[in-house]
Amino acid sequence: MAQRIQPILDSILDDDRCQGSTRTFVLDLLAQYTRKKSLSQGQRRALGNIEEKLASAPPVDMEKQQRLDDLILRAQAANDRWAVDFITSLKGQLAMDKELSPRQKEIFVKVADRHSDKAVEQRESWASNFTSEMRDKMTIAAHYYLANPPYFRDVAEKALGDDSFVPSERAYAKMVENKYATKVIESTLAKAKFNPGSHVMVRSTANIRSISRNAVGVVLKADAKPVFSAARGSKVYSVLFFGETQASFVEERWLKKGRV
Does the residue 194 lie in any domain? Predict the structure, then answer.
């Protein structure tokens, strides 16, 4: 069998019925065989069992498989990687004439609904009506979550790295409209209390180690950095404190009108 291992591996991996843990196992065998040009006796026996199982499986229902393929393409277009993996696994299971569990059937219905004609139409409508104001809010939330990992990292990176990126309506709601992001957006968009050139003083209650309490300085810029805190009044200012040679970044909540 040693001389036939490579074609057997290739044949099994080319079979759409080989999915899930079985496919992972065969891929591991392929990686080992590529490195060592050999498999153990037990591995060769397991490979032979998989080959026999596929050979004795009933004919594939091509119509059903095509419907699953179409659903996979829809999930791929929506960047729903989890759904792609799930449907692909079901495809292999059904091809081997294995019955789906009640839970698998339940999840499949939800996935199919998520990528139905109606759902696709709603997503397209959502994308065409994605406004510049919504993009601004998404950008603010993206800065916040990248500074406060690990939540929404993938969506946040896409939002900041691609000016044309439009998240799903569900992803947008989860990242931008939660209570933390809402406070961050509110602080960012609020009118600045202190204008450039005005004098400010650090509040005695300020939780800032690098700046002494009651220090007085002049505002150089409002919105000097993205807001990284979900606390109210977290708009960031660039302030040059008297006696210092470099400006400091201070949140609005730690400042009050200064006296000179």
Answer: no
